[in-house]
Amino acid sequence: MSNVTMQKTNFFNYAEMTWDVVDELPRDTPLILPLGAGYNLDMLADQLRHPQKVGMLPPFPFGWRGSGLELPEPIFLRYISNLLSSLRDDGFSRVYCLMPQGLDPQSFFTLQPSAFILSQPHPSLYAQTTFLPPDSERGKVILIPIGHTEQHGFHLPLFVDTVIIEAIANGTVEKSPARCWSMPVMPYGVSTHRSSFAATMNAGGRAFEDFWVAVIDVLVARGFDRFYLMSGHGGNSSFLVNIVKYAGERHRRIFCATAWLHTSGKIGAAALDKYRTTKIGGMGHAGELETSYMLHLRPDVCQMERVVDETDFVATPDYYMDWIEGGSLIANPPWDDDSKTGAYGAGSHATAEKGRLWLAAAIEEKATHVEEIHEQHERREKRRNEGYGLWGKFKKT
To answer: I need a surface site. Which of 24, 26, 60, 299 has the fewest CB within 10 A?
Structure first.
């Protein structure tokens, strides 16, 4: 009879860590990207042969067969593959995608010898789980919140963008339940600066665009016609503009919109000016704004004793860094030029009260956008149905 006792595996939340702590992890630490949540961690420890520590990344919410919102496999798997590559590029050697049992991605992953698959029974196999809005929600604006998992200085964890945009989306639905419905938040976006700071993920711009256009395709096929892509991460923004353009060209009777981040329109900008105590440059990234949000929403993961204010961005009149970026120049120089810690701005100025006030403004702003999307769609449909312009060429008489 064996006297060997298996060591207890410690599962840690990858996205609650700061990037520098992830950077210090042994590179043979297993990191798991799960498709959905609810897996058996004891079984997972057995599958991995009981390592001391295992990092669990945020669950990927939908897209695979059986998830309730199925996308074309090559489009879905390219997104996943790019995320796994982010971890391997940081030197991690034990990177796994945890999939529901029975999901066979055919040859895609097997063509990549450094990618690994684990599988086990998943709740979606036994329960009717769907991330499609129910048919009763047709006619509402479908909110699509997209966050990210990336560095936010020494004082904030990796999932800042996801926490904030999820709170804004949920608050918008609570404020206008008859006018909008929210998809689950996506915790992975695009970071073209990924190589500068460990732990930062990157779905890749083209994979990101293809994925979200495919999501719109599925929803339009189900009869939904109003969409609002809401981003908590600046790196997503230019790609979301492309998605909106592709979707509008592809589906001419829908109204699909996005906006530059949150808290940045007329309502948000006024609230920023009213309550901020930093000058321009103080709330670019992990600065006064995002830190205030997190002190309000998740103070338990904020390490304010580790704040390093970084406002030494190479700024010129038409190119500088703040939350509502200004100037006519658009560029993408390395973050290493401007930030030593992965932050832009002055997080030391943050307070939970500012976060509460700015969240309320962001929700009010998004609810206003929802109403504008409804108005835009309804007025355009009225013109189409009346045969306005070239639409009249196809109007039945």
So the answer is: 24
